[in-house]
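Structure tokens please, single chain.
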Amino acid sequence: MRSVVSGEKIFRVSTQTCQNSLSNPVCPVCQLAAVTAVIAVTAVIVVTAVIVVTASRRVTYHERGLVLILFEMNELDLYDYELPRHLIAQQPTPARVDARLLVVDRRQQSLAHHHIRDLPEILRPGDCLVLNDTRVVPARLLGRRDSTGGHWEGLFLEVGAGGFWRILCKTRGKLLPNETIRLTDAQGQDDIQLRLGAKQADGSWIVRPESEEEIFALLTRVGRAPLPPYIRKGEMDETDRQQYQTVYARWPGAVAAPTAGLHFSESLLGRLEEDQVVLCPLTLHTGVGTFRPITAPLLAEHKMHAEWGTILQETADRILQCRAAGGRVVAVGTTSVRLLETAAAEGTLKQFTGYTDLFIRPPFQFRAVNALLTNFHLPRTTLLVLVRTFGGDTLITRAYREAIREGYRFYSYGDAMLIL
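Here you go.
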């Protein structure tokens, strides 16, 4: 037994009891232990609450404290990253083939720095390079409202039955059906009128051009290259008409470039063919949804935009022959991947024509593609999800960090990576 003084009172405390239970209410050692335990538990609760509030999307407050329920990880947080603004490419490299190329080897879990011009040394004879030969139309429209004279901007999406267009547009004030817009050409001169029809549920408008001119000839005169807003706020110069287009573009219909293909020159394609790399074209008209971020907190809740594409039987046969001979199918761009995997959904690649809304996300079994050449993509987009699904989360995350550290240029006019 020992005596402990507290204020004016003397308590006789059993030391043995305190050592066993630390629960004696008059023992200073027990009191200190109790206070320490409370502080520790409180810290754990606070830290846990912060983590859960950050990572979850639903919390409920109980009248006696914070009760966290329906814990759901926001999957998009896994596809986010910070990019210094100066790494967003505003112009392509002077020579297409001088873009840098980060080679990502999944088998070796390695990264290697190259340039696009090195592809003949990286690809093997018998490999099949799949190219999207869609042609970007000058889809960005500028004009003014005839009723108010106010500035108006639009984006051509597609032409439908009867020559009607479907477009997206914005202006100050509310647009009304039957209103007319005066388009201006590339020199800022007044050109044809557009008459607004009905506004659609997705926010687009059906409009009628007041002209009988062939549509793509008309767009060539009044349209601008549809640059994404992170490139000079979408303002093109005349060089973009050629630079924001692949050298093998053939079939008009895209409103965004298949950007991985921008790196190829005609001479590089010739060298690859000389090295017995097989070139196989397909067509997927890249839509406006390509660059839109995912807004649903769960990937399974995201509704993928649909795009029209076609793979000819001849192309499918050549790809299958390459694979049978041991060659790799190297898709140039995520658009090529989506169409190839759509056409191979039943197990074997075959001819395909129609719309695809395939959203490639984990888990996904790739049936057609062995390697992927692609640019560096915006965070929280379906493009980045596809690339991470193909290359593996850990390796691609590491590759992006390496690219940022080494000063690679990002997005549409930026550098590329080759995932083997």
